[in-house]
TrEMBL record, chain A:
The keyword Cell division does not apply. InterPro entries: Cu-R_B_prcur. GO terms for biological process: intracellular copper ion homeostasis. GO terms for molecular function: copper ion binding. Keywords: Signal. It comes from the Bacteria. This is Copper resistance protein B. The lineage of its organism: Bacteria, Pseudomonadati, Pseudomonadota, Gammaproteobacteria, Pseudomonadales. The keyword Ribonucleoprotein does not apply. One of its GO terms (cellular component) is cell outer membrane. Residues 1-24 form the signal peptide.
């Protein structure tokens, strides 16, 4: 630090000048970023994994979302896909674009559209949902879908994380779909359609940005949906061994 | 040296003359090496931390700050009393300093003591833009020392401030690695029984709150004067010398519990203002606070300055030694702190008023009729809203029979249930000294020389400290800065601020430009601070003599809380002609109060 010290004789006049010079400032208004809503973004892959089923089916699966926005409004893109490696085809491919606003201390409401473009017929739905943290630390995501043709269904996603240590985490997930009307073309029967339950043991390798895991996943179809699957030569129940990573950035 | 001597001589001879110092600071991209990691950051004059700025009380300083960054910057002189347009808060004091621009700060130094400076732009401060200020007093100090060192702490994190803010917004527990685990469940079961443990977990789970939510930001390396624990900053001494250590907590987020095993510390100054000396074994330094302590090592040996974070997730370490290279044992970190239901007591809109009666029972009015000498150490921190209106003459007549069971500050160190009037009763955050000795409390702080005459406040302003951990939103009275109207004060009034902490985190509240007279119940001897920590579930009062016109920032000094909205602008209306700023503020900042 360069530093010059000097002695200055200051007359009364000059000292008055000093104080008036300081005060001739106007009070400005705050137009800095601090006064603006804080805009943030994030990308998370809850699942990014390879699945191997009990009848030798191999899948590449992801379940991810990206958001951009403020405390009061976020835009969120949710994407899920199951890629059949042998057949080189998407068993499922869902993309949702929703707007999200807080409705309570722990829950947000979402509204938007969902596009399903797997192998086979496509579907477009309107989405209405709530997502947040329920008591006892259950992450909940519940959605209502209405297709262009008026078919309605709901989907409930729940997740619980058990901290074996602060780095080893056992995550239990449940995903259940209930349809209020039949959509035979895509194999959906009225009533409980399907469940997917998973148990994944992860280790936070790099912060919470990269957490490899292994686990098991159980998929099951029910009622008419199971019958449709059988009729189409598919399976109604599958067990998978999974290996993958949770990713956040 | 020569010029300095001359300066001193001349100033003695010619009292009509005013000292003027000119200083240069550059704001630069720098490399920061903590010993654990190396990262790019921001510093002053090519280094982080920046230099120790040494001023003299009574001088007029001119500080030329050159911005070598490719973004706006600013310097705030933390704790200095100065004209508001020199305070260095972009959007409030001035527009900021553009890239490539040199801004000259110019203000008179009207105080003495230990302070610090830092950028008030974005997250430049957590990224390394801070330094220290030491102001030599005009008169003699009420304590002696042979040697002095600045001991400036920070919580250096490998991530940039922007990234940390984003991660906290995405996952509020992103950095929390002290969460309760299955292992802790079983150890709690063996200690407290299965049902109690399950009930405890259900109660916290029901609130969706974490007992482990003490430190939002973990994974940092504690630095002292820019050195990590392994780099071991060392201050030399000769046995028998009195050493003044000027502790400054420049952390973004971290409170530190500081001790020097083997040495008693005498606290002589807090936030730059002299306090009546208190001997302690350990003290907690809030973010942005300063404490000056005097130690006197008599032996020819090294001593470790050990600064453990409040949540025990990290530490800083330095050494006092007769010779370079000597070192002493470094203590182990203690068990992580856990919040208790007492720390949550502010959250459910609890009626603090009902506590007032109880607290007044605690007032130690008995032993002395002399207010000044009275020890009020057990009454602060809770709700004594009636204090200000109390007729002191009546106190002598108080019934002291209830005092026997009182929780005296001096007795508060009992090992089983430590207590401190500035923490909620039963709080999990109440500090205890590692050696079982004396831990400094706010209640121990008494001003050495009151700056102001004690008088009734003209009004009270309640500021509820609010937030939502799961969303990582922080606010005052439930309103974030972006939506808030300024707080309007009138020049000449004495305002009593009532902080009610309704969150589970500790908030170091910092009012710019005017002193915060912390109510520890010592009347005119209440300590004068610039940053006041408000613990979860407590109500704390401070009073401010509104004696500086202009507009000022008022915020929680945890960087990510301030950025998330726990921030206000204060406008002081009116003022003497000579000092008055143009108060025709441009219409702005609509929204709720």
């Amino acid at each position: 630090m360069s530093r010059i010290r000097s002695v200055v004789a200051v007359s009364f006049l000059a000292s008055m000048g000093f104080s008036t010079a300081v005060t001739a400032q106007e009070m400005i208004s705050d137009t800095t970023a601090r006064k603006q809503p804080l805009t943030t973004w994030g990308v998370q892959f809850e699942e990014f994994e390879y699945r191997y089923s009990d009848d030798d089916e191999e899948l590449g699966v992801w379940n991810a979302d990206a958001f951009y926005g403020t405390d009061d409004f976020k835009v969120r893109l949710l994407t899920t896909g199951e890629y059949e490696i042998a057949e080189q085809a998407y068993e499922t491919l869902e993309n949702q674009l929703v707007g999200q606003i807080p409705i309570s201390k722990f829950f947000d409401a979402k509204a938007g559209v969902r596009f399903d473009t797997p192998e086979g017929p496509d579907r477009t739905y309107a989405v209405l949902g709530v997502a947040g943290l329920a008591p006892q630390w259950f992450e909940i995501d519940a959605n209502l879908y209405v297709s262009k043709d008026g078919d309605t269904s709901t989907e409930l996603d729940a997740e619980y994380e058990l901290l074996l240590t602060n780095y080893w985490i056992l995550a239990a997930t449940l995903d259940a779909t209930v349809a209020f009307s039949e959509d035979r073309e895509i194999g959906v029967g009225k009533g409980l359609v399907s469940t997917e339950t998973g148990l994944r043991l992860s280790y936070d390798l790099i912060d919470r940005a990269f957490s490899p895991y292994v686990g098991v996943v159980h998929e099951r179809k029910y009622g008419d949906s199971a019958d449709f699957a059988e009729a189409d030569g598919g399976s109604t129940e599958d067990w998978f061994a999974v290996i993958g990573a949770r990713i956040a950035f | 040296m020569k010029t300095r001597l001359l300066t001193g001589l001349l100033s003695l001879l010619m009292p009509a003359m005013v000292l003027a110092g000119e200083y240069d600071l550059t704001v630069d991209r720098v490399e920061i090496d903590t010993g654990d990691f190396v990262k790019e950051g921001i510093g002053y004059n090519g280094k982080s931390p920046g230099p120790v700025m040494r001023f003299k009380e009574g001088e007029n300083v001119r500080i030329n700050v050159t911005n070598n960054l490719d973004e706006m910057t600013s310097i705030h002189w933390h704790g200095l009393i100065l004209p508001f347009d020199q305070d260095g808060v972009p959007g409030i004091s001035f527009p900021g300093i553009k890239p490539g621009e040199t801004f000259t700060y110019e203000f008179p130094i009207q105080q003495a003591g230990t302070y610090w400076f830092h950028s008030h732009s974005g997250f430049q401060e957590p990224d390394g833009a801070y330094g220290s200020i030491v102001i030599e007093p005009e008169g003699r100090e009420p304590f002696r020392y042979d040697r002095e060192y600045v001991v400036q702490l920070t919580d250096k994190h490998p991530h940039s401030g922007d990234r940390i803010m984003r991660n906290l917004k995405m996952m509020p527990d992103y950095y929390n690695r002290e969460q309760q685990t299955v292992g802790e469940f079983f150890s709690d079961v063996s200690e407290n029984g299965l049902m109690n443990t399950v009930r405890d977990r259900m109660a916290w789970g029901g609130m969706r709150m974490m007992k482990a939510d003490v430190e939002d930001l973990q994974g940092f390396t504690g630095l002292i004067n820019g050195k990590g624990p392994d780099q071991n900053w060392t201050g030399l001494f000769e046995p028998g010398e009195r050493i003044r250590l000027r502790f400054i907590n420049s952390s973004a987020m971290t409170y530190f519990d500081i001790r020097i095993p083997g040495l008693d510390m005498t606290v002589v100054q807090a936030d730059g203002n002299n306090v009546q000396p208190v001997n302690v074994d350990e003290f907690r330094i809030g973010v942005a606070e300063t404490y000056d302590v005097i130690v006197r090592p008599k032996d020819e040996q090294a001593y470790t300055i050990f600064a453990e974070s409040m949540g025990r997730s990290g530490y800083a370490r330095a050494t006092l030694a007769p010779e370079e290279g000597m070192e002493a044992a470094v203590p182990q970190l203690r068990e992580p702190a856990r919040l208790t239901m007492a720390d949550m007591s502010g959250m459910h809109g609890m009626d603090h008023g009902s506590m007032a009666g109880m607290d007044h029972g605690n007032m130690e009015m008995g032993s002395s009729e002399d207010m000044a000498g009275m020890d009020h150490s057990s009454m602060e921190g809770k709700d004594h809203s009636n204090m200000s209106s109390m007729d002191h003459s009546n106190m002598k007549g108080m019934d002291h029979s209830g005092m026997a069971g009182m929780d005296h500050g001096s007795m508060a160190m009992g090992k089983e249930s430590p207590s401190d009037p500035f923490y909620a009763k039963g709080s999990g955050l109440v500090p205890t000294a590692a050696n079982g000795g004396k831990f400094l409390s706010y209640a121990d702080l008494k001003a050495q020389n009151p700056l102001y005459e004690d008088r009734e406040p003209t009004r009270e302003i309640e500021l509820r400290l609010t937030g939502n951990m799961e969303r990582y939103t922080w606010s005052i009275n439930g309103v974030k800065y972006e939506d808030a109207d300024p707080i309007r004060l009138k020049y000449g009034e004495r305002v009593r601020f009532k902080f009610v902490n309704e969150t589970m985190m500790t908030h170091p509240m910092h009012l710019h430009g005017m002193w915060s007279i912390l109510d520890v119940g010592a009347g005119q001897w209440n300590p004068i601070k610039h940053t006041v920590s408000v613990q979860p579930g407590t109500t704390v009062y401070m009073e401010t003599e509104v004696d500086e016109p202009g507009q000022w920032a008022f915020h929680c000094h945890l960087s990510y809380h301030a950025a998330a909205g726990m921030f206000r602008k204060v406008i002081v209306e009116g003022g003497p002609e000579s000092k008055q700023a143009k108060t025709d503020v441009i219409a702005e900042e609509g929204g709720e109060a």
